[in-house]
Amino acid sequence: MAKVIIRKSGATIEAELTVAELKELAGLNGHAMRGRSNGGTTQAPLPLDSNYREFFSALSEDGRRFLNFVKAAGPNGIAAENVAHQLGLKNRYALGGVAGGSLGKQAKNFGIDRDDVYVKEVDSENGVRTVIFKPGKILEFLE
After folding, report:
1. Are the C-beta atoms of residues 95 and 89 closer than 8 Å to each other?
2. C-alpha angle 117/35/119, rounded to 5°?
3. Distance in angstroms (rounded) separating the CA atoms of residues 59 and 102
4. pLDDT tens digit sequence for 59-82
5. Which architecture does CATH list for 52-141?
6. Is 114 strand, coil or helix?
7. CB–CB of 49/91 below 8 Å?
8. 53: which residues sit within 8 A by CB, 6+ positions away?
9. What pTM does this model have?
10. What are the start and end residues of each CATH 1.10.10.10 domain in the chain?
11. pLDDT, tens only, 10-22
């Protein structure tokens, strides 16, 4: 039995695995590995027909902070008011320059659909408009 510790997004998982289970976890079970070697760690590859890595490396500091808050919120997302407050903006409307103006245009320039990076959900109940930002499918690759 081998002791395995996995740390991701602030959570820690510890398990004891058999050699067969460890091989499967490591991708050594006879099937091709899905990741690439990167200094001893394996990271799932991003689609080859995109410029995701270049997009992430070109982010402004505010854009990176915005996406980190959205990523940390998880699948339930985070309210626009909360993101604005954490970024030190006056109100949620000021997020337009960060989320739409900067990130949206930059994603388009790299040939990336903004919804792959983050999803903006707008709801209106009893005349109150609520905006929630949720992580898109590639946001987990943001380092």
Report:
1. yes
2. 10
3. 9
4. 888 889 999 999 999 999 999 999
5. Orthogonal Bundle (1.10)
6. helix
7. no
8. 46
9. 0.62
10. 52-141
11. 666 677 767 666 5
